[in-house]
């Protein structure tokens, strides 16, 4: 595949915030932020990565399809693939937009991380959900009440329809998280432009309505990859969580090609620490 031509060494240099060649493009601000938060200045807004896992995280190679010993040795991933459990915030001069809400359990770092950048839960204007898996909507509620009391909640029609009303336990959990936002819920179709000039992009495959969001040169692509070091080189490898592997592969290849050709900042909820691949160079 053409996308496999992305050299791993190049990828690692793109991912590393310590790489000197990236410091100009990935201008870091607010150096006193906690270790699980990164801030990237951009034109008209600041992008924040918020890691929601307290301990370092690696996904095992066995999580992925089509991974053999040759690939494991080639990429040196025998001890696992660096990853994270993350959310993102876009902060403009007068708005705060949150993308996913993390796990929401007792170990969640989301709310204290927001506080570290001067953002309270009630300050969030809108929440954009990439998909309705628990580690992405878990922080929406506490004790059955909405945490983000002033925020609109954006979910794609396809994702909402696939889960809400489902008789499964996962569907029931999703409904319980979404219901407190019913009066502020906004369902959309792929291709719609949402508030803040944020565009909803079809990246179906991981789930039936999996959505990426783009604002300017930032593309927040949810669970497009669970193992960056593997799947940029071998996009045909799917995590076992992907519901439709064929569509997932197609979405991953398309996303990587778009990010590379249009020189975007690609963000992922399970990318390693820092949360981004910067294709702007």
Your description of this structure?
The chain has 281 residues and is of the alpha+beta class. Helix content is 23%, strand content 23%. The protein contains 8 helices and 17 strands. A 7-stranded mixed sheet has the order 1-2-5-6-7-10-11. A 6-stranded mixed sheet has the order 12-13-14-15-16-17. Residues 1-28 have low confidence and may be disordered.
**Termini distance?**
22 Å
Distinct helical segment count:
8
| Order of strands, widest sheet | 1-2-5-6-7-10-11
Give the overall form: globular
Q: Structural class given helices, strands, pairing?
A: alpha+beta
Show unreliable segments.
1-28
One letter per element, helices H and strands E, the order comes to: HEEEHEEEHEHEEEHHEEEEEHHEE
**Proportion in β-strands:** 15-25%
Rg over alpha carbons? 18 Å
Residue-averaged pLDDT, rounded?
A: 91
Q: What fraction, in percent, of the residue positions are helical?
A: 10-25%
Q: How would a textbook summarize the main sheet?
A: 7 strands, mixed
Number of strands: 17
What is the gist of this entry?
The protein has 281 residues and is α+β, with helices and mostly antiparallel strands. It has helices spanning 8-15, 69-75, 110-116, 134-137, 157-163, 169-178, 228-231, 245-261, and strands spanning 37-41, 46-51, 57-59, 81-83, 86-91, 96-99, 126-128, 141-142, 145-146, 152-156, 185-188, 193-194, 198-202, 211-215, 218-220, 265-267, 276-278.
List keywords for this structure.
8 helices, disordered N terminus, alpha+beta, 17 strands, 281 residues, 23% helix, globular, seven-stranded mixed beta sheet, single chain
